[in-house]
Structures are given as structure tokens and as C-alpha cells.
Amino acid sequence: VQLQASGGGLVQAGGSLRLSCAASGRTFYVMGWFRQAPGKEREFVAVQTWNGETTRYADSVKGRFTISRDNAKNTVYLQMSSLKPEDTAVYYCVGKRSITGSVDYWGQGTLVTVSS
Description:
116 residues; mainly beta; 6-stranded mixed β-sheet
């Protein structure tokens, strides 16, 4: 099982970026994103169920980030807008069995750097 994230990079504050994560080896009922900023603990960002019926966002990203899935491609996306320097972090793709359960699989991270 692999979760391959991509799309990170350097962007100015106020800009946008889209992350992608392609899963291989299995499908996940829930896919989503966590992030870890320098010197901080890893934190939840967003998750979504297979059918898109349930979506959850961290308060810090609500209204700015949008999670979506393409089940035909077994891929989850994170569209990030109005980016702030405090969004700078390594973003990790995750696969889970339920919205509230623990993470079953972690992907490798992709670095997002937002300059002021």
C-alpha cells in the first residue's frame, strides 16, 4: 500500500496551491490530510469519506481549504487558497477506515512553504 503525495512548493501569502495524493494497493473509505509545521506536532487538516457525504476540516483552514476525491483515480486533493505563512508545513496524506478512527496509513509528506 502506498500513498503518494505531490504538489507542494513555495507560494506567496494569499496564493493558492493544490496537493494531490494517489493511493495504490487498496482503497480507503476515508482519505485526508494532516500537517506538521517546523517545531510543532502533527495536526489534522481535513478528511472526506468515499462518497463525499462527510467532510471534516480543522477550524484553522475552514473556508480556505477544500478537500475532494476522484475515486476512479483513487486520489484525494487538497485545494488551498488564501494561504498564510502559518500554513507552512509538511503535508501528509492519510488513509483511514472511519472519520473518527485513527490513521491506518500515512503517505510521505510534501512540503508547502508560504512566504510573507
